[in-house]
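Title: Prediction job returns without error message
Component: structure pipeline
Severity: low
Priority: P3
Assignee: unassigned

Description:
Job completed but the reporter wants confirmation the result is attached to the right record. Sequence as submitted:
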Amino acid sequence: MIIGHAGVTLGAADLDEAQRFISDFGLTLKAADEDRLTYQLDEGSIVTVKRADDASLPPPLGPEASVREICWGVDTQEALNALEADLSRDLDVRKDADGSLSFTDPSGIATRLGLFQRKPVLYVPEPINAPDAIRRLGKHRRWRKRAHPKVIQHVVYVVDDALEAARFYMHRLNFRLSDISKGIGYFLRAEGTSEHHSVFFLNKGAVPGAEAPRPDHICFGVEDIDEMMAGAVHMKRQGWKQGMGPGRHRIGSALFYYLKSPLGVEFEYDTDNDHLDDHWQPQEWEPRFGMINWIAGELPPFWSTAPEWDVRYVPNDHPIYEPYQVEPRSAASKVGRG
């Protein structure tokens, strides 16, 4: 089964500026040369950055250099073989020298599946005090200078048809539906993780800034609000521009802080997510109600008036659950596949 993110590959118009941003953001640089940067997180996932014109990169989804390939980790060779057999029925699946599989999904997202053994990470969030509920006695909270994310939590893509993108991931890659933002998009988690969502598919044109298919942001997990805000302050001191936040989403419950990167995609600090198992019942949320629980600073225009409290369980007859039809590839189309 797919157990989560094994990595992402990005293209950069300016590799030096990309290195400055990602290092300031807090990822650990493992290798660098004139053509490539490699960062590794504590869980073992890899962030690779190449020059935008590198011939080895898949074409971008959208006009920016941005996220060029997403890699999902698979726990066993048997599971990887089963995915290859199924996906090859209607997609051009290529097996690379390391045994990983690469293909372009129906939404145009360059995707890789590879064996991955995720490493557990060590987090010890600070106990929280409240009147007459003392969890931290006789000690300060931990003081941090900056953030050092240890995990990739999710990626977000704008796509032509979020429903069909979600159906492909659910019916072909065994992702689970977590929640729906009504008319906006679909939150999905990989089968082998409890994170609220591993990917979110956003409908093209559903919100301002989503006028065409493209990667929107990559989310990295930190320990708690202190690490998140220490990272935010450090990034401001280094001259980087913030996006939305700090705030808390209602769907998924996570605290968030977005930063504008020079790679054509935002980076997000995220902490205190909901975690789910297969007993979870997905819900459909009014978009403004689900988007934000609270936010600091100026209110976004779409949140200038209070949203309606509108959320309900996804019905069993929702189109997301309809059987997925596969069109077998012709024999001619399979010739020459590596």
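Comment from assignee: result matches the submitted record. Residues 225-237 form the longest helix (13 residues).
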